[in-house]
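Researcher: We plan to redesign the surface later, but first we want a full-length starting point. Tokens attached.
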């Protein structure tokens, strides 16, 4: 095993080079945050925090570089859903008992790659021993035009509901990763969708400009859409066939590979795509500008006034409302062995 650096050497070697001007080289206990470009009087700072943990969000065998990048991207996805452009992160890193210099070197390389890719600085954090396995907690900071924060609460009847990308790839990719084999072709693509989600940061300015409400899909399309609709006091109904699925996921679905089902794809977590409600009069402009950014967006339906408990109704090929055994991933409560309600 390669020699382990102590906590201070670890920070100086792998994390201090990622810090910004207000972070004092990560030699202090706090940092100064300033909105980039001198826009402080016109912008609100948006803060989010998500953590990922070994065996819950990634496997023990996962490349530490991918762990770091996934931790960053899950947080940037939250910011994008609020219409916020990211500019900084802080990191709390719980290291597993068997970590060594090679592990932290790969983790640091992943942090560096995505800090550069998304133009963000590391402004501080903490490191600690984690006997139960690696834990990565990221706090991300973004900025949004004052008054344009896209909460879950702002959707209205008549708004058009959009979803980005494709749904269900990550839950299929997780099942592939669990096999412990080297996937090829379509399966490799799906596994990458699970290991390295695509944060829709490029769409943040459009969410800022057009969205009445938005959220990212971390726990599953059906469950997360239910949260948005209930928060806004609206409901929605649309054919399940309208949900965008990738060619690769459709292939597994048609082959019934290892029990992959449409319900599993619609309720699986880790997609990190965006649900976006847009006023009817702006929907066409939103679609056009998203296309100009090469981001696929799909119209799922038009929001209606709340219909009580059943805020979300997906229709099968016969036009009947689908009944789901589970709505989304849950960390607590009554769950099966995979964390599903």
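Model: Full-length starting sequence:
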């Amino acid at each position: 095993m390669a020699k382990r650096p102590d906590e201070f050497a670890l920070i100086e070697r792998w994390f201090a080079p990622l810090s910004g001007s207000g972070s004092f080289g990560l030699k202090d206990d706090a940092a100064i945050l300033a909105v980039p470009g001198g826009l402080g009087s016109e912008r609100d700072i948006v803060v989010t925090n998500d953590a990922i943990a070994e065996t819950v969000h990634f496997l023990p065998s996962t490349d530490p570089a991918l762990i770091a990048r996934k931790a960053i991207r899950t947080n940037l996805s939250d910011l994008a859903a609020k219409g916020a452009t990211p500019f900084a992160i802080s990191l709390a890193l719980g290291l597993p008992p068997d970590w060594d210099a090679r592990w932290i070197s790969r983790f640091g390389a992943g942090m560096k790659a995505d800090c550069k890719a998304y133009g963000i600085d590391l402004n501080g954090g903490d490191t600690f021993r984690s006997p139960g396995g690696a834990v990565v907690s990221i706090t991300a900071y973004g900025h949004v035009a004052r008054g344009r924060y896209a909460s879950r609460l702002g959707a209205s009847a008549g708004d058009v509901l959009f979803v980005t990308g494709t749904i269900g790839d990550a839950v299929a990719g997780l099942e592939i990763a669990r096999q412990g084999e080297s996937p090829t072709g379509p399966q490799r693509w799906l596994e990458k969708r699970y290991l390295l989600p695509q944060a829709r940061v490029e769409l943040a300015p459009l969410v800022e400009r057009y969205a009445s409400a938005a959220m990212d899909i971390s726990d599953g399309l059906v469950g997360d859409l239910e949260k948005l609709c209930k928060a806004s006091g609206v409901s929605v109904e649309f054919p399940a066939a309208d949900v965008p699925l990738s060619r690769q996921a459709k292939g597994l679905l048609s082959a019934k590979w290892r029990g992959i089902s449409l319900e599993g794809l619609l309720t699986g977590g880790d997609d990190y795509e965006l649900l976006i409600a847009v006023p009817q009069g702006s929907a066409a402009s939103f679609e056009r500008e998203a296309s100009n950014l090469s981001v696929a967006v799909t119209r799922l339906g038009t929001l209606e006034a709340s219909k009580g408990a059943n805020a979300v109704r997906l229709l099968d090929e016969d036009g009947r409302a689908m009944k789901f055994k589970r709505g989304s991933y849950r960390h607590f409560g009554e769950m099966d062995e995979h964390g599903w309600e």
